[in-house]
Amino acid sequence: LIEKYPPNAWLTPCEIFKPYYGMTIARYLKAAHEKQFGEGRQKEQIRIVEAGAGTGSAAEPIIYFFSNFHR
Question: Which residues of the chain have pLDDT under 50?
Answer without folding.
Answer: none
